[in-house]
Amino acid sequence: MNLALCLILTALSSQAIAGEKPSLRIYTYDSFASEWGPGPTIKKEFEKECACEVKFISVADGYALLARLKLEKSSPKADLIVGLDETLTTAALETGLFTPSEVTIENLNIPKPLKTSPIFVPYDYGSYAFMFDTQAKNSKGQLFTRPTSMAELLTDPNLRKSIIIQDPRSSAPGFALLLWLRSLYQDRTAEKYLELKKQVLTVSPGWSESYKLFTSGEAPIVFSYTTSEAYHREEEKTDRYQTIIFKEGHYAVVEYSALLKSSKHHALGQKFLKFLTSTSTQATIASKNWMYPIRALPTGLPKSYSQIPVPGHVLRISPSEILKQRGSWIHEWQTIFSKN
């Protein structure tokens, strides 16, 4: 009797295992996986098609994602990664952890795309910008004046200790600010760091921390994205927080996803990458990740996108140059910002 029961339980257990759904583990950044981000909607919709379970594992941003994968190099825990930008693609490629996506995208809609490996699949893009609190007042009770250029932002004495930025050692946007200044000033970048330091109130570890400080009223200006204004207009129905457009141009960013070689679900991972670039998912990206989709949407963008300014000039530095110079550029910034 005990033997018969054991055989029955073993058979039932085998059936349960056979019927288990495959689990697709995806590393991404905090805001993507958050309850207000695109992650939950994408998870729900993809699970309808895949007969699988999607598990988002989030960290701060793209830098943290790549750092985690490097630590796990001998045995990565993820199948996919969502959230690498152009500043990281060359470094990611050198790890040897990724495999070609085999995903082709028709009607790609990215301004001045840089050449990347077929391993990386773009899913959104945007431009970095400083956001301005139109209701913020200085110590004299007067409204701050919005700067109109990077030069003015760096030198206006009325903006002393009024800007929040992110640490380039731990934040992708933080490093992007260095690239923006480098693309504008080349060999004069160090002296611009000295000017910027006088204007900075706080250097936060990541974007989320800095933006919370900004919307809490700690400072009138924060480093973010042009599309942050679209979010406030659409979701909060307010025009209080506005994008500052500079005449010198803005640094652009494209975000990518990729499939790991070690994944046990290659076909499923490729299906997810293709799903991420579908027009329905791209609409979710536009309305919940608050970045521009890489494909034109049949239904158009959310109305708020038409209400935000667009940079007139796009700035870029090649990924190979970034990989070559990243260490020295960060060291230069650190040397200046660590001094009292």
Describe this protein's structure.
The chain is α/β, with parallel strands linked by helices. It folds into 2 domains: 22-124 and 253-307, Periplasmic binding protein-like II (D-Maltodextrin-Binding Protein, domain 2); 127-252 and 311-337, 3-Layer(aba) Sandwich (D-Maltodextrin-Binding Protein, domain 2), CATH 3.40.190.10. 41% of the residues lie in helices and 20% in strands. It has 13 helices and 12 strands. Strands 1, 2, 3, 4, 5, 6, 7, 8, 9, 10, 11 and 12 form a 12-stranded mixed sheet that branches. Helix 8 packs across helix 13. The longest helix is centred in the C-terminal third of the chain and has 19 residues, at 319-337. The chain is globular, with a radius of gyration of 22 Å. Residues 3-18 have low confidence and may be disordered.
CATH-defined superfamily of the largest domain = Periplasmic binding protein-like II
The gross shape turns out to be: globular
What name is given to the CATH topology of the largest domain?
Answer: D-Maltodextrin-Binding Protein, domain 2
Instruction: State the helicity in percent bands.
Output: 40-55%
Structural class of the helix and strand makeup?
A: alpha/beta
N- to C-terminal distance: 80 Å
Order of helices and strands: HEHHEHEHEEHEHHEHEHEEHHEEH
